[in-house]
């Protein structure tokens, strides 16, 4: 709310703490500011501020008025933003990056629905094994798992996600089910080589404790779907996101191994370069994607 309103004027005056600073901000003389304050107090019938030659301080009535004024101004700002947003129609090119598996399974169907609702948007889905450089690739939005590598990026959490150990019943029937994390060293582990990470070091959390174990196996790939197909075929144990294996576990095509352990820093985020002046197409798509993911995913183990 502008400072030319009584609420805006009083909040500014309270935050500045003296008449001269407020006068400078308002492009008025200190006497004019003092006169306006006196007029406000006369209208309300209470003294809002104590004045000295150097500073002003709030009375108890002034403190109550200040707190209420701040809340009212915030509510009005949010209301105006919602009304302004409602007038905006998403349009133009929207470039989105996601991983192959999650992009095919979830992001692509959401884009299809979004395109029906907002035909003025030209959506491009770019799938990649690893996150792309948003600036260099001209991306508006990328879907990432886990923590943000670049503090200059902004992110909104879309979905909780953890990674669990899993294997096909046939593999566990042949080789036994591990009872301890250390037993993984004697099992064939299917390794996913992605994002230039230490792919053969599995870091897992149990309660507040974190353990790391070095695994090995005869099969590895940089493609998650291929690796998952090997697990389903009974070749070994893999660590995989719950969004991707929940349906297989439910159908008993896969079983969780050591389910008390999980990799917990794998939540799914919508990442964008700047939050300030975020365009309608990006903001509304993120809201839409978030809602659809909550409605449509089967991810989640107790």
- The structural class is alpha/beta
Helical proportion, percent range? 40-55%
Question: What is the strand content?
Answer: 15-25%
Distance between the termini: 46 Å
The major beta sheet can be summarized as: 5 strands, mixed
Question: What is the rounded Rg?
Answer: 28 Å
Poorly predicted spans: none
Average predicted confidence as pLDDT: 87
> What gross morphology would you assign?
elongated
Order of helices and strands: HHHEEHEHEHEEEHEEEEHEHEEH
Number of helices: 10
Features:
302 residues, five-stranded mixed sheet, alpha/beta, 10 helices, 14 strands, three-stranded antiparallel sheet
Quick structural summary:
The protein is α/β, with parallel strands linked by helices and 302 residues long. It is built from 10 helices and 14 strands.
């Amino acid at each position: 709310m502008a400072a030319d309103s009584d609420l805006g004027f009083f909040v500014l005056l309270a935050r500045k703490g003296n008449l001269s600073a407020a006068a400078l901000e308002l492009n008025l003389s200190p006497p004019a500011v003092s006169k306006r304050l006196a007029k406000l107090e006369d209208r309300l019938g209470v003294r809002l501020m104590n004045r000295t030659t150097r500073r002003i301080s709030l009375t108890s009535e002034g403190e109550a008025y200040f707190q209420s004024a701040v809340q009212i101004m915030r509510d009005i700002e949010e209301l105006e933003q919602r009304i302004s947003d409602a007038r905006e129609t998403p349009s133009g090119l929207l470039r989105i990056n996601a991983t192959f598996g999650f992009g095919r399974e979830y992001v692509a169907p959401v884009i299809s629905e979004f395109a029906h609702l907002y035909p003025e948007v030209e959506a491009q889905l770019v799938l990649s094994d690893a996150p792309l450089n948003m600036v260099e690739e001209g991306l508006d939005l990328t879907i990432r798992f886990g923590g943000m590598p670049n503090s200059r990026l902004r992110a909104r959490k879309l979905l909780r996600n953890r990674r669990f150990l899993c294997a096909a019943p046939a593999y566990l029937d042949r080789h036994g089910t591990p009872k301890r994390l250390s037993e993984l060293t004697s099992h064939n582990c299917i390794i996913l080589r992605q994002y230039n990470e230490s792919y053969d070091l599995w870091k897992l959390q149990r309660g507040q404790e974190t353990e790391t174990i070095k695994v090995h196996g005869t099969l590895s790939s940089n493609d998650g779907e291929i690796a998952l197909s090997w697990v389903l075929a009974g070749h070994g144990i893999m660590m995989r996101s719950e969004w991707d294996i929940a349906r297989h576990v439910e159908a008993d095509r896969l079983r969780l191994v050591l389910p008390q352990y999980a990799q917990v820093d794998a939540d799914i985020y919508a990442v964008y370069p700047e939050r300030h002046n975020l365009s309608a197409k990006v903001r509304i798509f993120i809201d839409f994607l978030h809602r659809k993911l909550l409605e449509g995913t089967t991810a989640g183990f107790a």
